[in-house]
Amino acid sequence: MSVFSYELNDRRVAIVTIDVPGEKMNTLRDSFADDLLAILKQGKDDNITGMVFISGKSDNFIAGADIKMLDNAQNREDALALSEMCQQAFFTMKKQPYPTVAAIHGAALGGGLEFALACDYRVCTDSDITKLGLPEVQLGLLPGGGGTQRLPKLVGIQKALEWMLTGKQVRAKQAKKAGLVNDSVPHSILLDVAAKFATKGKAKAAQPKLDKISSLLESNPFGRNIIFKKAQDNVMKKTGGHYPAPLNIIKAVRASVELGELKAYKTEAEGFADLVMTDVSKSLRGIFFATTEMKKEYKTDDAQPVKRTAVLGGGLMGAGIAHVSAVKAGALVRIKDVAQQGVSNAMNYSYKILSKRQKRRIMSKAELQLTMNKITGGTDYTAFKHVDMVIEAVFEDLQLKQSMVADIERESREDTIFASNTSSLPISQIAAQAQRPENVIGLHYFSPVEKMPLVEIIPHAGTSEKTIARTVNFARKQGKTPIVVKDKAGFYVNRILAPYVNEAANLLLAGEPIDKIDQALIEFGFPVGPLALLDEVGIDIGSKIAPILEKELGERFKAPNAFERLIDSKRLGRKTGRGFYTYEKKGKKVDESVYELLGITQSPRLNKQEIASRCVAQMLNEAARCLDEGIIASARDGDIGAIFGIGFPPFLGGPFSYMDKRGINKVCSELSTYASDNAAFTPAESLMELAESGGRFYASNKAEVTLVEMSSEDTNTTKAVQCEEITEQNSEGKPA
Ligand SMILES: C[C@H](O)CC(=O)SCCNC(=O)CCNC(=O)[C@H](O)C(C)(C)COP(=O)(O)OP(=O)(O)OC[C@H]1O[C@@H](n2cnc3c(N)ncnc32)[C@H](O)[C@@H]1OP(=O)(O)O
Questions:
Q1: Number of Cβ within a 10 Å radius of residue 583
Q2: Region 681-692: what's the mean pLDDT?
Q3: How many Å apart are CA 724 and CA 203, to the nearest integer?
Q4: d(Cα 325, Cα 162) in Å, to the nearest integer?
Q5: Residue 25, ligand 1, Cβ within 6 A
Q6: Which ranges in 277-380 belong to alpha helices (H)?
Q7: Does ligand 1 have an atom closer than 6 angstroms to the CB of 136?
Q8: How far is the CA of 63 from the centre of ligand 1 (A)?
Q9: The pLDDT of residue 546
Q10: Would you put residue 518 in left (φ > 0), alpha (ψ -120 to 50) or beta?
Q11: Residues involved in catalysis
């Protein structure tokens, strides 16, 4: 059955509806090329004036090639054939004697936008749900259906590179301004406007709308060389060579201006085929499917939406939570702080972020004002009777939090949820004296809240299913990926982070230099090293969490005593201008006086690979323990939590995928070696069992890839990598 249906209007314009049967989302599947060729031929046979493609789905045009189909490619030849099939079908469309028009409402992404690029005209709706982009890089791929060839011709080389290297998705206004679409219109007239374009005859080759400097740079080989060199340098700086897709994108775009059409398209198809088969792309595709699957969980029809919220505490976390609640979730937010200044600071936080958006013309002044109107605040409980959820973000003090539960039970409704942003205290203790413990839940954000994609949701034994579902749904509305974790000190993210950071501190105390330790983990693929991360979080914050973890979980969580001496000397991290590093306008540099303060004689003994191995081994082991104890429900949740919460290298697929790839027995024997001088490395039970049985965490072939072990020379030349989107979310991010 064809995905296209065809109808002629009174001006002999064929209206072709794209509708993949039985699916929510249109994607390009195996049969699409044959279906397209058949419909194009019918148009020719009918001697039509033009053809309009419109989606039969209510909220998407085409979301790209079917990613599952890519997973079915057995080898490079299969992947090459997929790309060539797309290219050929779009060439045929381009060559039709009649004009073709893409009428876009909703997502036109990847192969979906490439489809539209091959049409003569593109019209999109001005709706908020309309987004256009080539996000293949986020899957470790390049646009393999002519996107690397057609986009630069339409919007210019620099813009096309920027969009493809970041996977940026643009909305109607920006698409029109850049020349990506011919018009943007209200949904109600989309088809009429598109049908008019279809009567205009074939389109002439468009010229990109460039300013003088860009036009000068892009129009001559010397200028283009500068552009490509700069793009390449930036990519290497950001990815350190861990991600091959951006380099292949640059190569294919370069081919589009330097080689003949045939060779250039071949460069694109071959680059695509190489990438489909890489471990990196397999890992990134795994992340896409994991997050898609997670979106379906804890969805109940009767979950009452959270429309009014209150935030207790106007500090950095409270301000961030208020911001995402109002801006992303569209909720009304009431901030309560003990001081009016705290409320003002929190409101100012949002205002600053929104003002930047207004300056960049992403939002209008009126929109800014409307959004700010959603956030109010005060020092008492005014308006708390109306709120659906209260999120507390005050400091880690059990009694204070318990008294807040009592206040909210008195001041709010019977069904108001009390969510605690605690990073370490068990929720059962916070709920211990609650009258309505079923309403109490943990909702742990990461800082900066508006950038970090993860939240941990922590029900205690008495939390109701309804409270869990409402909280999960609200977190999703805030733009977060939630993982539901068990109520035990440190939950998941801080629990796997603490031993990793402690190991870094142990290595420092054993004489390894600060910058070498951080660099080792950056080269492994983390966005920031563990000591710099501690500086970001605040050494005082880390040292407050450590005793809670030690008390609840045991000796292996004991933080090195060194931290206290740093705190006594007012070295709390970035916020005080000094920690392991000093922070000045010129940038950060290692604070050499730390060595003397801690009585360390620098005596580097390990290479960077060994340093990274020891720190990462602690994290992997603790992640496995969390799975053993049911802190996380699955290896999948553990992978997503580590990637989105800490910035565990996405190209490795998360700690569990990484262990599968390396081989559990290898991980286990490495841990056992390290355990000879530090019992904290003793392998988790599940690791020992899996090592013995030859098992793995994922039953599927998800991680069935060979991991090239890095040699120590390699580690000197490789650098931290994130695909752009994930870097942006994590590089400034820090658990709290
Ligand atoms: C040759 C080409 O250059 C190669 C390519 O095109 S590669 C693909 C490039 N496209 C993409 O990366 C887009 C991927 N999709 C998305 O980002 C998001 O799905 C979206 C923004 C389109 C919509 O998000 P959202 O509304 O939250 O819906 P979401 O839950 O993600 O997806 C709904 C369903 O569509 C599926 N889906 C979306 N895009 C898909 C794709 N490209 N392939 C296969 N399935 C896809 C999801 O798996 C999910 O399926 P399910 O309900 O059966 O589990």
A1: 17
A2: 95
A3: 34
A4: 30
A5: yes
A6: 279-295, 316-327, 340-359, 365-373
A7: yes
A8: 5
A9: 85
A10: alpha
A11: 456
Can you tell me the distance from the alpha carbon of 722 to that of 243, in angstroms, rounded to the nearest whole number? 8
Give yes or no for residue 145 CB within 6 A of ligand 1: yes
CA of 450 to the centre of ligand 1 (A): 24
DSSP string, 209-237: ---HHHHHHHTSHHHHHHHHHHHHHHHHH
Q: pLDDT confidence of 714, banded at 50, 70, 90?
A: very low
The one-letter code for the residue type at 673 is T
Q: What is the pTM of this model?
A: 0.89
Q: How many CB atoms lie within 10 A of CB 69?
A: 15
Q: Which of 731, 690, 723, 516 is nearest to 614 (CA)?
A: 516
**CA-proximal residue: ligand 1, atom 21 (nearest):** 107
* Phi, then psi, of 606 in degrees rounded to 5: -100, 150
Give the single-character DSSP code of 559: P
25, 117, 163, 481: residue to mutate for ligand 1 pocket, most atoms within 8 A of CB? 25
pLDDT for the residue numbered 643: 97
Question: What are 358-372's pLDDT values in tens digits?
Answer: 998 878 899 999 999
Q: Give pLDDT, residue 196.
A: 97
Instruction: Count CA atoms closer than 13 A to 667's CA, side-chain side.
Output: 35
Ligand 1 centroid to Cα of residue 62, in Å, is 9
How remote is the CA of residue 280 from the centroid of ligand 1, in Å?
19
Following DSSP, what letter does each residue of 467-486 receive, concatenated?
HHHHHHHHHHHTT-EEEE--
Give the architecture-level CATH label for domain 493-730: Orthogonal Bundle (1.10)
CATH class of the domain at 4-277: alpha beta
pLDDT of residue 547: 86
Q: In this structure, what are the phi and psi dihedrals at residue 592, rounded to the nearest 5 degrees?
A: -60, -25
* Ligand 1 probe mutation, 292, 296, 725, most atoms within 8 A of CB: 292
pLDDT at 300: 66
DSSP state at residue 603 = -
Residue nearest to atom 31 of ligand 1 (CA): 292
* Residue of 309, 256, 322, 247 whose CA lies nearest to 280: 247
Structural domain boundaries in the chain: 4-277, 308-484, 493-730
What CATH number does the domain located at 308-484 have? Answer: 3.40.50.720
Q: Is 299 in the pocket of ligand 1 (CB under 6 A)?
A: no
Query: Ligand 1 centre from 492 Cα, in Å?
Result: 28
Cβ neighbour number for residue 362 with a 10 Å cutoff: 13
pLDDT band with cut points at 50, 70 and 90 for residue 303: low
Instruction: For residue 169, report the distance from its CA to the centre of ligand 1, in Å.
Output: 13
Q: Whose CA is nearest to atom 3 of ligand 1?
A: 143
pLDDT > 90 in the chain, percent: 82
Q: For residues 527 and 604, give the distance between their C-alpha atoms in angstroms, rounded to a whole number.
A: 23
Report ipTM for this prediction: 0.98
Cβ of residue 523 lying under 6 Å from some atom of ligand 1 = no
Ligand 1 lined by 65 (C-beta under 6 Å): yes
Q: Work out the pLDDT band at 524, boundaries 50, 70, 90.
A: very high
**What pLDDT score was predicted for residue 538?**
87
85 lines ligand 1 (CB under 6 A): no
135 close to ligand 1 (CB < 6 Angstrom): yes
Instruction: Please report, in angstroms and rounded to a whole number, the separation of the first and last CA atoms in the chain.
Output: 53
Cβ–Cβ under 8 Å, residues 447 and 316: yes
